[in-house]
Amino acid sequence: MTPILMLGAGRMGGALIEGWGRARAFSPADLILRDPYPTETARAVQAAGGRLNPPDAVLAEAQTVILAVKPQLWRETAAEVAHLLAPDAVIVSVAAGVKCSDMADAFGGRRIARVMPTTAVAINQGTISLYAADPAARAIAHALFEPVGAVVDLEDEELLHAATGVSGSAPAYFYAFVEALEAGGVAAGLPLDAARTLARATMTGAAALLAQSGEEPADLRRQVTSPNGTTEAALKVLMGEGGLEPLLRDAVAAATRRSRELGG
Fold this sequence. Notes:
The chain is an alpha/beta fold and 264 residues long. 50% of the residues lie in helices and 13% in strands. The chain has helices spanning 11-23, 40-47, 74-81, 100-106, 135-145, 159-168, 170-187, 192-213, 217-223, 230-238, 244-263; strands spanning 4-7, 31-34, 51-52, 64-67, 90-93, 112-117, 126-131, 149-153. The chain has an eight-stranded mixed β-sheet, sandwiched between helices. Helix 2 links the parallel strand 2 and strand 3. It is elongated, with a radius of gyration of 21 Å. It starts with a strand and ends with a helix.
């Protein structure tokens, strides 16, 4: 499955490169990067033996091609490189919303897998939604992403839109929640540094407990909610009418809708 050609080595591509390095899954020598605006991560790959923006003829060596450009640029990128690739190269796309059938047409009928990862792949804590009709393409996508996170297989490509809303976009929901919690602490009178430390350490600790305990989030919530206590008072606001559940339902629906629009 190597060499691996990465089309776009920006935020997501760079996170994947960092994760592979941390997991010792693929070496810089396994990588060919094509990006008109190379990041520090891309240049580090080059310095360590990878190939950055090589001559077009080199692209034919790639056994696996990761399409990691923004969805708005994928057709332009495919038009530039499809004729340069080996006929049996497998395309693995992280471009949100772009259908396998459209990519297969643009890449000359090559086998396609679609994935929706989170940027926590950089620290081997990613979450990856995966769809591929072709078993070989699915196996290659698994080999690429299992070293850097938890892979969830989806049997219906349409479900990738919902997976984007629940997982692909969700780190931003979490960061926004932490921002708001910090601001709430400051509004209640805490110094900014104290509010930041309390909010961030509490959220990461709670997430770690959820991951390691194996318990349901509802059970963990009940364990720290005393009747008529401070937590219950706060939860009446967060879980009341117009609170977290309807807000997140609408947020996931909006992200799902936008994923479909990007693919259209």
